[in-house]
Amino acid sequence: DQQVKQNSPSLSVQEGRISILNCDYTNSMFDYFLWYKKYPAEGPTFLISISSIKDKNEDGRFTVFLNKSAKHLSLHIVPSQPGDSAVYFCAGLNTGGFKTIFGAGTRLFVKA
Amino acid sequence: NAGVMQNPRHLVRRRGQEARLRCSPMKGHSHVYWYRQLPEEGLKFMVYLQKENIIDESGMPKERFSAEFPKEGPSILRIQQVVRGDSAAYFCASSPAGQGYEQYFGPGTRLTVT
Hints:
The complex is a heterodimer. Chain A is mainly β. Helix content of chain A is 0%, strand content 56%. In chain A, the strands form 2 sheets. In chain A, strands 2, 4, 5, 9, 10 and 11 form a 6-stranded mixed beta sheet that branches. By secondary structure, chain B is mainly β. Chain B is built from no helices and 11 strands. In chain B, strands 2, 4, 5, 6, 9, 10 and 11 form a 7-stranded mixed beta sheet that branches. In chain B, strands 1-3-8-7 form a 4-stranded antiparallel beta sheet, with no helix packed on it. At the A-B interface, strand 4, strand 5 and strand 10 of A face strand 4, strand 5, strand 9 and strand 10 of B.
């Protein structure tokens, strides 16, 4: 049962342009949604989160949008930089259980 | 470095042996989570522990896998009688009490079963 889905395995973007990573979910009980970034041979690094009662959260170049009616969220990176090239995981969290459910990830390539 | 520490970083075991993976949480964090990542897949939740307590082990295989977080020392994920399908990257995360939405991950242990 895939409660969190990232349907694009990879995305390629030119440096300086916007990167948009998408995520869909099926579990209406998630209280928080999180985005993590992962480089090879390293653990995931927390990027940004959004509470289920919000529709937008912004932190520097990173903005996450949540559309609860569509059960969809997206991460926008503006402007994209080569150092942003990594795998990005979307995750949902039910704070009642603290079990974080991850999507399969999207590999972002930012070309210089 | 006050981050989450995991050791060993790489572990090779033959089929039937035991694997012990260690995780030291960030200073001040009392909650530990273990995840497994199979090749080309996302991270799968295994178990959530507080000191001396298993809170949620719904992601743990019913046999051969166990986890503990003793009062003193690191959290241990133990896999008995390993099989080839156990080969994966195992990640530990920690969080402050009551802040499961703020999990910090260690670098992972890559287990290879030959």
